[in-house]
Specification:
Structural class: mainly alpha
GO molecular function, one term: zinc ion binding
Number of helices: 5
Keywords: Metal-binding, Zinc, Zinc-finger
Pfam family, one: zf-C2H2
Number of strands: 4
Order of helices and strands: HHEEHEEHH
Helix content: 40-55%
Strand order of the largest sheet: 1-2
Largest sheet: 2 strands, antiparallel
Protein name: Longitudinals lacking protein-like isoform X13
Shape: flat
Amino acid sequence: MKNFVSKHNLFTWTFVKRFLNAGFVVSPPSITSSVDQKPSTYKCDNCTKSYRYKHGLWRHIRYECGKEPQFQCLFCPKMCKIKTNLTQHMRLRHYQLMNTLYQSQNYA
């Protein structure tokens, strides 16, 4: 039996061994797989950013490229260019304040 350093290695070996015993062929990942990937095709004309999807470039041009942050946190001076980033900030940093505010509005 092999000398396993961690449980992960033991699990991986057991998993591969089951596949080999079941008749599956296990091949190593291709080295050229990262080279064969399609490069990002949508590039911003104003800066050096590039995006894989058209909607990513659209969002960048509309909200980010050369623009000041336009969404401000209700609880601190933090400003964000994208509203979902601000929403995530408020959920992570100000959870207690938001919860208190929500409860006070429901019971008022």
